[in-house]
TrEMBL record:
It is an enzyme of class 2 (transferase). This is Glutamine--fructose-6-phosphate aminotransferase [isomerizing]. The lineage of its organism: Bacteria, Pseudomonadati, Pseudomonadota, Gammaproteobacteria, Moraxellales. It comes from Psychrobacter aestuarii. The chain holds residues 242 to 614 of 614 of the full protein. Transmembrane segments: none annotated. Homodimer. The active site is at K368.
Amino acid sequence: HNADKGEFKHYMLKEIYEQPDAVARTLEMAIDNHAPNALRTDFLERHGEQLSGVRYVQVIACGTSYHAGMVAKYWFESITRLPCSVEVASEFRYRNPVVVDNSLVICISQSGETADTLSALRDIKKQNPAGLVSLALCNVPTSSLVRETDIFLPTLAGPEIGVASTKAFTTQLVALMLLMLKTGHVQGRIDDEALSNHISELQKLPGQLYASLHLDAPIKAMAEHFEDKKSCLFLGRGLQFPIALEGALKLKEISYIHAEGYAAGELKHGPLALVDKDMPIVVLAPKDSMLDKLKANMQEVHARHGELFVFASETSGIEAEDRLHLVNVNDVCETLSPIIYSVPVQLLSYHVAVLRGTDVDQPRNLAKSVTVE
Ligand code: G6P
């Protein structure tokens, strides 16, 4: 494998850097650069009728793929007004869940072989609710998951070798956005003008992702503050809450530092008790509708002598000060901000892990694909 890493020290870093291209490829499935006002007619062409009957969306996944599903829930509900639930497959499959009629069941899996996700799907198919539409959002076209579902929506990330998922995650987010737009549009929940606006924002993504890779150097410097830490908190609100969870998962997977992701509004219901100078607190602060609330949460931490590491929009008004380290991220539209803010948390985990000398691509006790329960 060594040669394939090219100039990169690890597959994970290579895969982080491949994200602008992987996202561009995934976008091309649905968007024709010469006709940028609408989705390509051949995108999910055979499934328009199935998608038009959907009244409820149920997402099932594990690990990083589950976090992509959490973002999709915000998108589906706020933009299409279709109700959407998301659950980890290992819980869903054992609680005898209700699957309502006319559900779109989205199984998200990089590998398409995760045992819990497959079992959850099989149980739903056994229940056989009326109007069920099952969809695999998957990076491996030949996988079991793809064979067992009605619709295959590919992520075109290319092979992902690092155990910690990076480009599979960001391409899952892009594909979920495209699926949400298609479903909303065929149902008349998203009109032509809104669709065209979403598409023009999506087309900026590869360039914005490329720009976010320039944060590598400042984040590498920031990582030194984490090297000898025991525990770490990631905070976000709204669309950034799933990215806070994903950031914490990445850090614990590859650096072995205990990390927790939290919805910043929940701070006062527990984690504030942990705040001291020894627990770094990472904050995701794009310029969005939650920014003022988030700033108040940051203040709560700062006042208790917490040390903040903030990824913030250039126009957020947040400034570096004592115990507040700042890395500025380019301004992006609120809807797509989780895709862009994935990059700094990936880079932070990567550099902390490298400093701690762990096996970044092959962390102890973990597997790329969990095919047994
Ligand atoms: C393992 C991997 C994770 C991945 C999860 C789900 O835990 O280490 O990176 O997110 O499985 O895998 P899937 O292939 O179903 O997305």
